[in-house]
Amino acid sequence: KGQNKRVLVTGGAGFIGSNFVHYWHRQADLLVVLDALTYAGHRATLADLEGADGFKFVEGDIGNAELVSQLLTAYEIDTIIHFAAESHVDRSILGPAAFVQTNVVGTFTLLEAFRHRWEAQGKPEHFRFLHVSTDEVFGSLGPTDPAFSETTPYAPNSPYSASKAGSDHLVRAYFHTFNLPTLITNCSNNYGPYQFPEKLIPLMCVNILSGQPLPIYGDGQNVRDWLHVTDHCEAIATVLQKAAPGETYNIGGNNQVKNIDIVQQLCDLMDELADGLPISPARELITFVTDRPGHDRRYAMDSSKLQRELGWQPKYDFATGLAQTAQWYLDNEAWWRPLLERSRA
Ligand code: NAD
């Protein structure tokens, strides 16, 4: 009791981080969000928690060593759940520097500050640094290759995945070199509420609602393994509570879908759910565009280690989760419209 109860959540105003904060905050005595509020972070997503007991929001950069070490000391943090990152592959092609800065240098800064606090406290066994990462570090699969496991060699292909791979390696090294109690989770593509409308599913939802073209890279046959964000949050909580320090776990939905199939499903869902779309049937908006450079063809995650060792199972059925997500974007234009306008300004 009293362990892993004083938690720093980095990137808690972003998509997965904010879903995790809502999912987990009652389990902590104190939950501090540290978020730089980049284009992807939105404080309004956490508005319901402002002023709540045991919740604090701090606007700041994970690369600010002084700020991070002050927070760890002042709030007596024993656990970091590290979501903060530059997360969009297309942006990493246009401007890779921010990815190296936040994902590599930022993660290093957090690790150093946490190590100093852990050592100053006499290396308590219950401290944890849980690093949230991606399946993209493993590269791309051919159509019949087996899914990625925890022992698949790293082979990142984009500046985004390379910067996440770099951060994973630093976290691993801090366990092996300093015995810092770290954990790594690598997860497949997430979907659900509060995802910034530049990623496939929310982008298609808001473009259908606005009557804008639905751009699909290449031939649309790229395959991703989709997991509902709530299932991801549950997996993170399971790893935090049950995994041995130094472990890594793959998280996936065992749910491989082609991009074109997702977009067509979303078109049909929105035709059904929305009254008076600007263009209907929405499939008329589908437009194939030049493929993304270095576009990985297929990802698939084998999460049997997590299921076998720690007893986690995904709960969401994809068709239901996708319909709920489409309905959420339909109902929450007041959330996404200002974010889009801010990012385009
Ligand atoms: P996101 O882009 O929605 O949110 C990132 C958050 O980090 C934002 O709130 C942003 O303001 C904050 N941030 C960015 N730079 C910062 C900095 N220097 N200091 C402090 N805060 C900063 O991302 P997401 O989709 O929620 O992803 C969260 C984590 O999960 C990332 O580490 C990502 O690599 C990983 N991940 C994402 C997916 C996915 O499908 N979205 C899948 C697997 C893993």
From TrEMBL:
Residues 8-324 form the NAD(P)-binding domain. Its cofactor is NAD(+). One of its GO terms (molecular function) is dTDP-glucose 4,6-dehydratase activity. InterPro entries: dTDP_Gluc_deHydtase (IPR005888), NAD(P)-bd_dom (IPR016040), NAD(P)-bd_dom_sf (IPR036291). It catalyses: dTDP-alpha-D-glucose = dTDP-4-dehydro-6-deoxy-alpha-D-glucose + H2O. One of its GO terms (biological process) is nucleotide-sugar metabolic process. Keywords: Lyase, NAD. The keyword NAD applies. CDD domains: dTDP_GD_SDR_e (cd05246). The keyword Membrane does not apply. Its EC number is 4.2.1.46. Belongs to the NAD(P)-dependent epimerase/dehydratase family. dTDP-glucose dehydratase subfamily. PANTHER family: DTDP-D-GLUCOSE 4,6-DEHYDRATASE-RELATED (PTHR43000). This is dTDP-glucose 4,6-dehydratase. It comes from Leptolyngbya iicbica LK. The gene is rfbB.
